[in-house]
Specification:
By secondary structure, the chain is an all-alpha fold. The chain has one domain. Helix content is about 80%, strand content about 0%.
Length: about 90
Amino acid sequence: MKYFVLALQLFPAILAAVKAAEAHITLPKSGADKLELVTGVVEEAYESITEGLGQDYSRESVTRLVVGIIGRVVAIFNRLGIFSTAVA
């Protein structure tokens, strides 16, 4: 249950980060780099707040959760035509 709550809490920030990466990195075939950018930011944030978060969530589990959410967001945005180019 705690991961479900964490996913809902992180969703708006992840959505904004994915949109920002898509808006600012317009090179073709740059989806993997965009994913690396967004997950890297999340991992850096995790490192800076590890005192509280690290006790409840491992870094790997948070990264897996974020990558899964990003994958779903990008897939839906691509299918709906929100993103004009394919993203990894």
